[in-house]
Amino acid sequence: MAAARLGGFALVLAVAFAGAYGIGQAFGPVDSIDSGDSPAEPAAAGHGHGGGGESGGESGGHAEGEPLPAGLRVTADGHTLEVVDPRGFAFRILDESGDPVTRFTPNHDKLMHLIVARRDLSGFRHVHPEMSADGTWRVPLDLRDAGDYRMFADFVPAGRTEPVTLGVDVPVPGDYRPVPMPPPALTAEVDGYRVTLSGHLDAGTTSRLTLTVDKGGVPVTDLQPYLGAYGHLVALRQGDLAYLHVHPHDGAAAGPSVTFDTEVPSTGTYRLYLDFKHGDVVRTAEFTAVAEPHEER
Ligand SMILES: [Cu+2]
Fold first, then answer.
1. Domain of 237: which CATH number?
2. Distance 17 CA to ligand 1 centre (A)
3. CA 185 – CA 285 distance, rounded (Å)
4. CA 231 → CA 92, 119, 265, 283, 290, distances in Å?
5. In angstroms, what is the span from residue 255 Cα to ligand 1's centroid?
6. Least enclosed by CB within 10 Å: which of 121, 139, 143, 178?
7. What is the C-alpha to C-alpha distance for residues 56 and 54, in angstroms, rounded to an integer?
8. Which domain holds residue 266?
């Protein structure tokens, strides 16, 4: 049953690539995968094969090998994200036996990356929790605005090389005032910095995006490395918050431009979050961008 649903999802993705604006159609199957994951978790059989990651399964639904977008599942690749304390965003990673995982491989200088955004794509945070001996990760996160938040745990299990990203919703109680998604724009302002986006998001293929930072009209040429790179780009898909974490193209300079090779899985609207470090402060510039069918470009 679950395998059939996985195949169905792959089919929907293929349709989306062909140019049907199938974002809404894609959601139903994604939800089905979330609820029907455990009976036929394909990763259980696929572990030994190099951790191909978020593959849509081995049931003939490979859809040209396109992976299932990360972050849509609370259980994937033999791991489960368990919220220990929703008020503190404390969590554990459990293995297939339900035991907490305490051994991880550092990835971009950290053992664990925690990304949090509210379901309306506001309130983005990218932080690095600390693990206690029992495998519980905690980080101070002062989220004052009520709403359902999506939290993503992005990590590399010990003995593997490919990251796993799991996602779960965490409620912050109170009076929820959703923020409309800002319209698409090619510039973003943060703390006196102006970041300009160039390039186009093409669905289902690699898109080269360049982000250029200036301050007071002067190009910034002394960006500081942050977690081993001059910039980190996270993209979340509007509607289901499918997750992409992108790192700069090789040979990146310290500014003013940082180039990313980005592969978004479908057409639709994405919120892009660029973390960059300058003057010893990490800031986030946010953009709304629309991914268009590759065929039409
Ligand atoms: Cu991180």
1. 2.60.40.1220
2. 30
3. 12
4. 27, 24, 21, 10, 21
5. 20
6. 178
7. 6
8. 187-296
CB 79, CB 37: distance < 8 Å: no
Tokens of 87: 């008020």
Q: Ligand 1: distance of its center to the CA of 107 in Å?
A: 8
Residue 48 tokens read as: 């030994």
Average pLDDT over residues 178-185: 95
Residue whose C-alpha is closest to residue 81's, from 169, 139, 166: 166
99 CA from centroid of ligand 1 (Å): 24
Within this chain, do residues 272 and 283 fall inside the same structural domain, yes or no? yes
Q: How far is CA 259 from CA 34, 227, 270, 274, in A?
A: 34, 16, 18, 11
Number of domains within the chain: 3
Tens digit of each residue's pLDDT (9 = 90 or more) over 250-289: 666 888 999 999 989 899 999 999 999 999 999 999 999 9
